Amino acid sequence: MEMNQSQRLPVPQQVAWEALNDTELLKQCIPGCESIEPDGDHAYLLAMTAAVGPVKARFKGRMALEDIQAPDSYTIRFDGQGGAAGFGKGSARVRLEPDGDETVLTYTVNAQVGGKIAQIGSRLVDAAARKMADTFFARFTEAVTPDATDSTPAAEGAPAAAAGDNEPTEQAKRKRSWTAWISKS
């Protein structure tokens, strides 16, 4: 399977680069991701649940960042096992290019699948991969997009928080995050 796509991010290149290297942010944005743990220099162990057609499985795998050209590009090599469901392995070349105050992220993925997942057929596998990529980028773009409402609570009719009292803001953030997560699932 090969997949190419570009995504415009409403942030400068350095901000996009830092977000792409923030494992907590990535964990929130990757559909079905349960954990991302360090495993050496520029390497991580992942656990996630994924569904391809009628096959749903928990995958455990490893990804390593190679050819790192900060803040412009890197290659991600990945390998995951899903038990009886099969396996997935491959690489993704990720490139960031500044465009004014924004950044254009371009990626090319080359992947192979085997086991029950491969028996489903390339159309369903490709469709599931595109859906996961679309969901990831919708979540990622929302996560990196500056929220103008956080800096101007009085503009929304909310009273300004007293010095040191930021609980209403945190509560509003949690509510917005939960609502966004539900609407994207």
From TrEMBL:
Locations of Low complexity compositional bias? 153-164
Q: Which SUPFAM superfamilies match?
A: Bet v1-like
Which CDD domains does this one have? CoxG
Q: Which Pfam families does the record cross-reference, listed alphabetically?
A: COXG (PF06240)
Instruction: List the signal peptide residues.
Output: none
The UniProt annotation puts the region (Disordered) at 147-185
- InterPro entries referenced in this protein's UniProt entry, alphabetically: CO_DH_gsu, START-like_dom_sf
Protein name stated in the entry: Carbon monoxide dehydrogenase subunit G
